[in-house]
Amino acid sequence: MELLPRSPAEFGSARYWDHFFRQRGQRSFEWYGAFPELCPVLHKYVRPRDKVLVVGCGNSELSEQMYDVGMCEDIVNIDISDAVIRQMRERSASTRPKMSYLLMDMLQMDFPDAHFQVVLDKGTLDALLTDEEEATLAKVDQMFAEISRVLQVGGRYLCVSLAQAHVLKKAVEYFSQEGWVVRVHQVASSGDKQQFVLPVFVYVMTKFRKIPGSAAQILEICPEEQDKPMRVESTEQLVAAVKDRQHYALLCSQISKTPCREQVSLDLCDKESGKPRYTLHVVDSPSAKPSRDNHFAIFIIPQGRETEWLFGTEEGRRQLAASAGFGRLLTVALHREQHYEGMAGIQAELSGKVMELAPPSLPARQQVPFLSVGGDIGVRAVRHCDSSPLSGEFVVEDVKGDGTCYFRRLIFLQNRNVVQSEARLLAPTPLPGQKKRRKDKKKPSPTEPPGAIDKSYLCCEHHKAMVAGLCLLGGPDALPGELAVLVVGLGGGSLPLFVHDYFSQARVAVVEIDPSMLEVATRWFGFSQGDRMQVHVCDGLDYVAKLAAEAPAQYDAVMFDVDSKDLTVGMSCPPPAFVEKPFLQKVKTILKPEGVFVLNLVCRDARLKESVLATLRDVFPLLYARRIQGEVNEILFCQPGPAGRRGPAELGARARALEGALRQPGRPWDSSYVLADMLQAVHIL
């Protein structure tokens, strides 16, 4: 500890460094970055015939190792410490005759202009730029000016640094404004995480003649795993890119030493586009019994299934890790904008990176298994991409579910982990008299549509519960007959389509604010309008307000399944304006006395949710609630009068009777859809 300076200012003091090197003796001192790690980068920018200046050389072995491997011999080393210069002269005098050590201050060098092709700095800038005081910044400007003076045009200033934000920003701004090309390399780690946590970087500043009046900057970053540099637009972007890599290194260091108490999430981005390619979640299972082979595994989530509860929620991933029986499970989600070459290709691409996230208990040379559902990466085919002023960017995609079923999904990209609408696809059936084709050895192309929309199947559990709530309509023994139903929020149209098709006397009005959604539902989800199905493209708030004023008490059921575009609010469905008391009173006005208001509520903010429920209770005397298992959704059934209060037994009986009425000969029915089951967990609030 006695070698450390008493203040940052001492890093620039010759007296301090004389004391430091006398105390340390002959042992070399490397700030960071051993020669084997730096060598691949140095080889790119140092040629054997170059004349190289090393500023602030200290007693580092870097110059000696460059000389000994034949990288370069004409090396001049300078330092302000007389003690270290004498020490280094003794060490290299007989074995490295072309290399010299000079006592010199890099802020006032004696060399002529344009004397060197390379200036090499290992940690010297970091030692000098310890703060952003005016005096310190003046010294750094002087250092940069001297380096610029002694470098030839086309020469390179190579600065090995930990790239603290203020250090990197200062260097990049100074040299880019002088018209130099700036490239930042991340140095590949030796794998010894105990030695140094932070990654090491090399700034490569290439000197060009400054063009008067030109403001163009060339700024690039070259990550450790690739040679091709990535261009960035500004100093801020370059600093942010470096900071991302520093945070990743700290994360890897942390989780390599101790188990994760909370799940850790990170994105790995595509090298070319910079867009996320993989989303990783690190899940530790303290309950897993340790054995020789169950320390660590990688689980590849099949494409299109990342939104499922088991893969898309913390609790689900925790359950997945526990059932897999590994101490640490790394789940990997694949992004829709990317192309993947099967499981083997993903394994080859990720094998090096995922080992940086291995647990501390993993034995050396332990093979880590890659797992998936069914051993493949699933199928995802994007059918349609578009954007609208109201919904933003969205995609329609077909994905392979569990087993042989395919599903069509609508995803709003501002909330890409939420399925907005979903429909099951029917397997194509041969025409009458048409023979089935023999099985081909080739797998079917994932871009071929499996078939038409299965309108009998409700994919979303909350839609099933909303339909089951219609058994609340009518008197004690009556079942819904002629119905007037208002659905606010179209999406893919599955909910209004089901009501229209299975309640044969129902008249369904749908309100959708975004005309693009009507086009998507019609083109991609089999939705159509007719005598009993009409869509009104307008704001649901305005439509209900107008009805309340002009035509009260006309609907048997009003259903809200409308999402909020404001992701800053803890309620994603519906928008807050739809559950304000004045508007809910208008909803009550347009309901018939024995009607039902069905609301899909998705609220993660406990206080906000309680406030919404309190408002609903103020407006509607009778309020039932049905939680959707494994999801945040809660379906609320609100009735204008308390006379319709029914207990669990009566609800179950009415649900079974309604299901019996809906199941007609010749009409397909999903056998897993049991209305009574949908209402089993309903409770009165």
For CATH, the homologous superfamily of the largest domain is named as Vaccinia Virus protein VP39
Instruction: Determine the structural class based on helices, strands and strand pairing.
Output: alpha/beta
Assign a percent range to the helix content.
Answer: 25-40%
- Principal-axis shape equals elongated
Keywords: Methyltransferase, Multifunctional enzyme, Transferase
GO molecular function: methyltransferase activity
InterPro entries: Lys/N-term_MeTrsfase_sf (IPR051419), Methyltranfer_dom (IPR025714), SAM-dependent_MTases_sf (IPR029063)
GO biological process, one term: methylation
Present the secondary structure layout.
Elements: H1 14-24, H2 35-45, E1 52-55, H3 62-68, E2 75-79, H4 82-92, E3 100-103, E4 116-122, H5 124-128, H6 134-150, E5 151-161, H7 165-177, E6 181-186, E7 201-206, E8 219-222, E9 230-232, H8 235-255, E10 264-269, E11 276-284, E12 296-300, H9 309-312, H10 314-324, E13 328-334, H11 342-354, E14 370-372, E15 380-388, E16 392-400, E17 406-412, E18 419-425, H12 461-468, E19 483-488, H13 494-502, E20 506-512, H14 515-524, E21 533-537, H15 540-550, E22 555-560, E23 571-573, H16 581-590, E24 591-603, H17 606-619, E25 622-627, E26 634-639, H18 648-662, H19 675-680, E27 683-684
Parallel strand pairs: 1-2, 1-4, 2-3, 4-5, 6-8, 12-13, 12-14, 19-20, 19-22, 20-21, 22-24
Antiparallel strand pairs: 5-7, 6-7, 8-9, 10-11, 11-13, 15-16, 16-17, 17-18, 23-24, 24-26, 25-26, 25-27
Helix pairs in contact: 7-8, 15-16, 16-17
